[in-house]
């Protein structure tokens, strides 16, 4: 089957998609967007998190056909068209919240969604928004610092 949807603001299509093929597979292997990572394939780690119609989802659990006609934002879509990092991406760099980087795409997508919905989150809000994302390297403190920094910078821009 052919699946057509909007990815990072551009209409995309994938042909010969098998019914059970995941959105993650289509994004990575068919559309050349490797940012979302394939780790657990069970929706447990969050490394494949994308936004589907604005809602964070584990793309490994979404059948590609479910994205038909919908809007998908991947970690690649957070940066500007010229490659300029988004506020949350730059905050992760500045706060040292990136180590091995495997979990980072999912964390960035989740944090970006949180700050869009709640530009002044409490620590509890941040922890809740990121609770579906596992990191084995950082101990989470730098990640929390990064989201706080992004929130502060977002507030300065207003």
From TrEMBL:
InterPro entries: 2Fe-2S-bd, 2Fe-2S-bd_dom_sf, 2Fe-2S_ferredoxin-like_sf, 2Fe-2S_ferredoxin-type, 2Fe2S_fd_BS, Beta-grasp_dom_sf, Diverse_Oxidoreductases. One of its GO terms (molecular function) is 2 iron, 2 sulfur cluster binding. Residues 1-78 form the 2Fe-2S ferredoxin-type domain. The keyword RNA-binding does not apply. It comes from the Bacteria. Keywords: 2Fe-2S, Iron, Iron-sulfur, Metal-binding, Oxidoreductase. Gene3D superfamilies: 3.10.20.30, [2Fe-2S]-binding domain. PANTHER family: OXIDOREDUCTASE WITH IRON-SULFUR SUBUNIT, XANTHINE DEHYDROGENASE IRON-SULFUR-BINDING SUBUNIT XDHC-RELATED. This is Carbon-monoxide dehydrogenase small subunit.
């Amino acid at each position: 089957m052919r699946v057509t949807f909007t990815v990072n603001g551009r209409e995309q299509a994938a042909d010969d998609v098998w019914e059970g093929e995941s959105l993650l597979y289509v994004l990575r292997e068919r559309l050349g967007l490797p940012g979302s990572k394939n780790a657990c394939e069970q929706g447990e780690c969050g490394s494949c998190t994308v936004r589907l119609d604005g809602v964070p989802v584990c793309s490994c659990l979404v059948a590609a056909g479910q994205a038909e006609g919908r809007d998908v934002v991947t970690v690649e879509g957070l940066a500007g068209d010229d490659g300029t990092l988004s506020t949350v991406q730059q905050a992760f760099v500045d706060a040292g919240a990136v180590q091995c980087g495997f979990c980072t795409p999912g964390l960035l997508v989740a944090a970006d969604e949180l700050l869009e919905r709640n530009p002044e989150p409490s620590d509890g809000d941040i922890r809740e928004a990121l609770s579906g994302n596992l990191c084995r390297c950082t101990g989470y403190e730098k990640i929390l610092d990064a989201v706080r920094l992004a929130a502060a910078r977002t507030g300065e821009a207003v």
